[in-house]
UniProtKB/TrEMBL annotation:
It comes from endosymbiont of Galathealinum brachiosum. Zinc chaperone that directly transfers zinc cofactor to target proteins, thereby activating them. Zinc is transferred from the CXCC motif in the GTPase domain to the zinc binding site in target proteins in a process requiring GTP hydrolysis. This is GTP-binding protein. Residues 8-167 form the CobW/HypB/UreG nucleotide-binding domain. One of its GO terms (cellular component) is cytoplasm. Pfam families: cobW, CobW_C. It comes from the Bacteria. Coiled coil: none annotated. Residues 250-332 form the CobW C-terminal domain.
Length: 334
């Protein structure tokens, strides 16, 4: 790796539903035509959705599914990173870790001996949804806390949805850090500015929970945490669980067509239960392919380029009734 020097590298972190993928999409639209970029996406779920959501003919996208980068293994990160560096010689690398991952180990890996002269880790950017700051489920979550602690740039990414109370909560929250942030911003729809990527990283940001990821107990991984169930060639479902969160994902043959209206009702009803935290997918509907990117607070649908199969993933803070969700999704088919 000695022939590759000081590649500008950015971590864009944030808890579930913070808007990381939307923010990266915004950055990719601003990429100078003459530059070669690569994006490494790490997902908690087993199916791998973000690679499809970020699909861009001008950018190399590498997916590492099934947990946080350090728990999937530094070897997985190194293999993926090394492949990208050698194959396309990127002039910038953007890394999106899972929303349930503690960034400290990832930072250590990227700044360690092996990558010390290969990568130039810039400011760590952390996104959050200011509406989550009124919910102790987030503000007392150790990973949520340290994602913000380690950020050089702290961004509330959904300004267009915030009340005045939300804005004040974010302002008060951002002012409360022991180590002041390099930049604190509220933006609409994840619209990050390109020049923020070149701001410097502080090496002295304290974490509240340094023991996280220092032991294997931090993620409470268990044997059989990924189970493949009730599958055939045209309908593939996989379940995963770790960190007290659960995921279920589907990969369905592209020939299957879903009702857009039925999908909307099915997903909205699932989110309204209060159990499902996050829904992402790319699906074949009546007259097009659509991208779904939703949380309890918002339901986003947009047109997506065609894939060879439909993919959908739910992430939950409680055990999921797989049979009910699977049958519900099947009923959405035309």
């Amino acid at each position: 790796m000695t022939t590759y020097k000081n590649i500008p590298t950015n971590i864009i972190s944030g808890f579930l539903g913070a808007g990381k993928t939307t923010a990266i999409q915004s950055l990719l639209k601003q990429k100078p035509e003459s530059e070669i970029w690569a994006v490494i996406v790490n997902e908690f779920g087993q199916i791998g959705i973000d690679g499809a959501l970020l699909k861009n003919d001008d950018v190399e996208i590498k997916e590492i599914a099934g947990g946080c980068l350090c728990c999937v293994g530094s070897q997985s990160l190194s293999v993926g990173l090394n492949q990208i560096i050698r194959s396309i010689k990127p002039q910038r690398i953007i890394i999106e870790p899972t929303g349930l991952g503690h960034p400290a180990k990832l930072i250590d890996s990227l700044t360690g001996e092996f990558y010390q002269t290969v990568l130039d880790l810039k400011a760590v950017i952390n996104l959050l949804d200011a509406r989550q700051l009124s919910d102790e489920k987030y503000t007392k979550n150790e990973i949520f806390i340290d994602q913000s602690n380690l950020a050089d740039i702290l961004i509330a990414s959904k300004l267009d949805t915030y009340s005045e109370e939300d804005k004040q909560l974010f302002t008060d929250y951002a002012m409360g850090f022991e180590s002041p942030k390099l930049k604190v911003v509220m933006v609409e729809q994840g619209r990050l500015q390109l020049d923020w990527l070149d701001l410097p990283r502080s090496q002295n940001r304290p974490v509240a929970y340094p023991e996280l990821h220092n032991t294997n107990q931090a993620h409470q991984h268990v044997d059989g945490a990924c189970d493949i169930v009730a599958n055939n060639v045209n309908w593939f479902m996989v379940e995963g669980h770790a960190n007290g969160y659960f995921s279920v994902g589907w990969r369905v043959a592209g020939e299957s067509v879903f009702s857009k209206q039925k999908l909307h009702s099915f997903i909205k009803n699932a989110l309204d239960t209060g159990v499902i935290e996050r829904v992402k997918g790319v699906l074949h509907v009546e007259d097009s392919w659509i991208q779904i990117n939703s949380t309890r607070n918002e339901f986003q649908v947009s047109i997506q380029t065609e894939l060879i199969y439909s993919i959908l993933e739910f992430i939950s803070s409680q055990s999921i009734n797989l049979e009910s969700l699977d049958s519900g999704l099947k009923e959405c088919r035309i």
